[in-house]
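Appendix B, Record 12. Input sequence as logged:
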Amino acid sequence: MIKLAPRLVVLYILFAGLSTLVNIGSQMISMMTYSGSYAITISILIGTLAGLPLRYVLEKRFIFSFQSNSMAQDGHLFFMYSLMGIFTTALFWITEYVFHLIFITSFMRYIGGILGLSIGYFIKYWLDKRFVFINKNRKFLA
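Logged structural output:
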């Protein structure tokens, strides 16, 4: 069994909570702004795009203590970070949609979103640790 430092666990949970608030809050604002036929899809996309850069910056610095050597390396890291998030984002979206289809209320849709985000964040930590924030000394073109 792999052990994590309690400080990292607390920080990761705080950052996940903050990102979840940004995500769900952005969705709520989106739903208040637009209520057309694609409102739910657009709100979920907006929430995802709002939370992604925040999580990247916080986790890179405080969870993985990773400092980029160049803008090129940082761009590559953000690309890899986003790529690792495709599966976990799909999990989040599917969970939120399933809750929407089953319960047909905004409140339960957001509960499904929070559940999907929580599971996804847990999986994403291990993906990022293994595939994204791994080699501080790799050379990138500036």
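The chain has a mean pLDDT of 88.
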